[in-house]
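In response to the reviewer comment on reproducibility (Comment 2.3), we provide here a single inverse folding case reported in full, input and output, so that an independent group could reproduce the run without further information from us. The structure tokens appear first.
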């Protein structure tokens, strides 16, 4: 399938041919190219974005550089000060943990979440909250249970106090109750999203389960490029952009539906039915507590809890 690439670097032929369909969102376009000598991802700011979104986009490569490899992409070129902002980063090998149509081994989930918390802890130490933590934003390295984050485009400065704003960045399925109500960026908001991600990997369904279109659910949320291909090959849509718009519409629940989750307890019995060890269920419960004061106060503390479970061999169901 031929795809026209609009990134200036691609127009100049600098990074070779496309190796996967691009990913589109309201904020950015990401193109995947063969590169020379390594595969790369080119992330370009979408058209007609607001100044706050542009500011976050410009900050993202600086965040990647501050966190550094191997758990985040390496920034190869930064052109975010140009009229058409974009940056080029390494496209590291790994797979989306949601590519499996079933819940994952609990010990393996504990390992990849333990790994994922490292960069998030360093991000918090920089005074920033991720604001869009979800399994789709990290990859699992093939060679070891090491998690690699691939998106910090929603990161904002951690701020004390309250807010009355009506919308917040992030993916609603993973947002904390207070974030759904417009809270300011916080460490505990990120902790909730980590817990919701952990729940999904353990349970094989989201914390607030909702149906996904059957045509696109055969492999239960495989990586984005597979979703794109499935949608096009099944004749559901005519092109990649339309496919992604269809997927985003289907996986973005109505805000009124999300408001119901603010007072809704997450069903931990699903984890019990899947024989998830009690220690891991307790970790998920603490991370996703409705009251932020009842959650882990930091990624470090949550990581220490998982370290104990992993290293003391107490992951018995």
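Designed residues, in position order:
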């Amino acid at each position: 399938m031929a795809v026209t690439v609009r990134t200036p670097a691609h127009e100049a032929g600098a990074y070779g041919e496309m190796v996967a369909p691009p990913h589109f969102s309201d904020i950015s376009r990401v193109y995947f190219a063969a590169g020379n000598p390594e595969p790369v991802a080119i992330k370009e700011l979408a058209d007609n974005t607001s100044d706050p979104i542009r500011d976050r986009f410009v900050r993202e490569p600086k965040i990647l550089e501050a966190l550094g490899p191997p758990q985040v992409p390496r920034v190869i070129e930064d052109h975010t000060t140009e009229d058409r902002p974009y940056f080029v980063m390494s496209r590291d090998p790994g797979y989306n943990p949601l590519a499996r149509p079933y819940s994952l081994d609990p010990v393996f989930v504990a390992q990849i979440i333990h790994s994922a918390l490292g960069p998030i802890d360093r991000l918090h130490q920089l005074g920033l909250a991720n604001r869009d933590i979800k399994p789709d934003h990290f990859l699992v390295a093939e060679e070891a249970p090491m998690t690699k984050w691939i998106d910090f485009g929603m990161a904002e400065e951690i701020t004390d106090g309250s807010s009355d704003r009506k919308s917040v960045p992030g993916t609603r399925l993973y947002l904390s109750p207070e974030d759904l109500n417009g809270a300011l960026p916080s460490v505990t908001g990120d902790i909730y999203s980590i817990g919701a991600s952990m729940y999904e990997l353990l349970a094989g369904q989201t914390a607030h389960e909702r149906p996904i279109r059957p045509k696109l659910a055969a492999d239960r949320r495989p990586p984005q490029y597979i979703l794109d291909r499935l949608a096009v090959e099944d004749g559901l849509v005519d092109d990649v952009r339309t496919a992604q718009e269809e997927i985003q519409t289907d996986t973005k629940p109505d805000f009124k539906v999300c408001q119901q989750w603010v007072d809704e307890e997450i069903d931990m019995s699903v984890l019990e039915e899947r024989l998830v060890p009690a220690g891991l269920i307790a970790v998920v419960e603490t991370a996703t507590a409705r009251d932020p004061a009842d959650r882990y106060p930091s990624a470090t503390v949550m990581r220490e809890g998982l370290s104990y479970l992993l290293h003391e061999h107490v992951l018995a169901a």
